[in-house]
Design goal:
This protein has 13 helices and 13 strands. By secondary structure, the chain is α/β, with parallel strands linked by helices. The strands form 4 sheets. Strands 7-9-10-11-12-13 form a 6-stranded parallel sheet. Its EC number is 2.1.1.14.
């Protein structure tokens, strides 16, 4: 690794950063349909993916981003595609999709059919390609948190008797993947996690209790799944986590402040940075940040929404960053969109032009606030 790259990695998450996913180009969408209908081969689809990812990486670098992703261009879902690649996990088509506010996704789910583990994964190759074209930018990989298997998998086949047993195997699987991806040169890994949002609302906590679960105990288990999965990571591998309330076609799944589990999130997780949604009233105020007790934890404020194209008033964004600095030193704060632009292949209801204006907005405001060039 070059000296320049090493310095960049140590600074992640960057002052102007992003969550990871981007709108799929029409050419890529068309190629996926053609492959599904047997009109082109998987190899031909891969070629289109490669070419579009090369273009995407160059656009990210031209926009001034210091970390680049492949935009999830090889995925249909931000979480299922990765989780299906673990041993003992299979995809299937349930009766219904996931429910968002006013809309439902296509039917897709995952189920546990055997002991969960890691032996190999296609996303290792995906990252290898990204790293090969990243140049002097940092290649960032995003994967779902281990908690997403806990919250999303159908366990009706009875492979695991309890959550603790499943978490034990999940930890081993994630450690295996992390070790492998580190060997491939990954120094910036991000967990994406919607499970925490279940704790934010009374409705979410009530649904746990209805299932016979204790929300406090579940939160402790979620924290353990993350902390133990990353416990043995190398010192130069930075791991962040994006906490999301749902993102599908510009809609959301849940609302609520971080307050209910703020002590766990801001004082009990061993990640290096937290990407947090603060783009509207659904996320509450900055007060929960008072529980942050670490000088080495970065808080990435998601003040720029990815759900609609209108640009936020830059002065208002700067004012909100200063508000957050009442709880967290300005030096530990960063800025990003509140979520990705396409958590699923359908994407949010914005245009590619609006997407890049949002990215430019983040980079320029960050440069002015933290005086970074």
């Amino acid at each position: 690794m070059s000296v320049t790259t090493e310095k960049n990695v140590k600074r992640t998450p960057f002052k102007g950063d992003h969550v990871g996913s981007f709108l799929r180009p029409e050419r890529l969408k068309a190629a996926r349909i053609q492959q599904a209908e047997g009109e082109i081969t998987e190899e031909e689809l891969r070629q289109v993916e490669d070419e579009e990812i090369v273009k995407l990486v160059e656009k990210q670098k031209e926009a001034g981003l210091k970390a680049v992703t492949d935009g999830d261009f090889r995925r249909s879902w931000w979480h299922f595609d990765f989780l299906e690649g673990l041993d003992g996990v299979e995809g299937y088509e349930p009766e219904k999709g996931l429910k968002f506010k006013g809309v439902e996704t296509k039917a897709r789910g995952i189920k546990i059919t055997g002991q969960v583990g890691f032996s190999d994964h296609e996303m290792v190759e995906h990252f290898r390609f990204l790293k090969s074209i990243a140049g002097d930018a940092v290649a960032k990989l995003t994967i779902p948190s281990p908690n997403m298997l806990l919250f999303r998998a159908d366990r009706s086949e009875g492979i695991y008797d309890d959550d603790e047993e499943l978490v034990n195997d999940l930890v081993v699987a994630y450690r295996g993947f992390i070790n492998k991806i580190y060997e491939e040169g990954c120094r910036y890994l991000q967990f994406d996690d919607t499970s925490w949002a279940t704790f934010f609302s009374e409705e979410g906590r009530a649904s746990m209790k209805k299932k016979g679960q204790n929300p406090e105990e579940v939160a402790e288990l979620c924290a353990r799944a993350i902390n133990e999965s990353i416990a043995n990571r190398p010192d130069d591998l930075l791991i962040t986590m994006h906490i999301c309330r749902g993102n599908f076609r510009s809609t959301f799944m849940t609302s609520g402040s971080y307050e209910a589990v703020s002590e766990t999130i801001f004082g009990g997780l061993d990640v290096d940075g937290l990407f947090l949604e603060f783009d509207d009233e659904r996320s509450g105020g900055f007060e929960p940040l008072r529980h942050m007790n670490r000088q080495d934890l970065s808080i990435v404020l998601g003040l720029i929404t990815s759900k609609y194209g209108e640009l936020e008033d830059p002065e208002r964004v700067k004012a909100r960053i200063l508000e957050a600095s009442d709880y967290v030193p300005l030096s530990q704060l960063c800025l990003s969109p509140q979520c990705g632009f396409a958590s699923t292949e359908e994407g949010n209801e914005i245009t590619e032009e609006q997407q890049w204006k949002k990215i430019d907005h983040v980079v320029r405001i960050a440069e002015e606030v933290w005086q970074e060039g």
